[in-house]
Amino acid sequence: MARVALDINGRRYEMACDDGQEAHLQKLAEYVDRRVRELAASVGQVGESRLLLMANLLIADELHEARRHQAPAQGREGDAEAAESLEEVAGRLERIAARLEAT
């Protein structure tokens, strides 16, 4: 198991990942950092956990829109799958935000 240091909104996070996934995880973190900084510029520093939650909800919305436009032939079934995925992501984000607030 590899370890990688990720910088998001001026804070460093040490994360474990599968060997060989370090560069991919770093690129994902850079994207999240960019979205968090854009959000902070528009709404201000409203607290780290809230900023991370808001940025991740925006990213989840981007994913939802991309999936919706990618496979319009799937119809309602695709919408249901996307909604289920978003619910899972929202649940994970809520748990992460709760852990961040506790620290």
UniProtKB/TrEMBL annotation:
Subunit and interaction comment: Homodimer. Interacts with FtsZ.
Gene Ontology CC: cell division site; cell septum; cytosol
UniProt-annotated location(s): Cytoplasm
UniProt keywords, alphabetically: Cell cycle, Cell division, Cytoplasm, Septation
Organism expressing this protein natively: Ferruginivarius sediminum
Primary location recorded for the protein, binned into one broad class: cytoplasm
Full protein name: Cell division protein ZapA
UniProt entry tagged with the keyword Cell cycle: yes
Summary of the function given for this chain in its UniProt record: Activator of cell division through the inhibition of FtsZ GTPase activity, therefore promoting FtsZ assembly into bundles of protofilaments necessary for the formation of the division Z ring. It is recruited early at mid-cell but it is not essential for cell division.
GO terms of biological process kind: division septum assembly; FtsZ-dependent cytokinesis; septin ring assembly
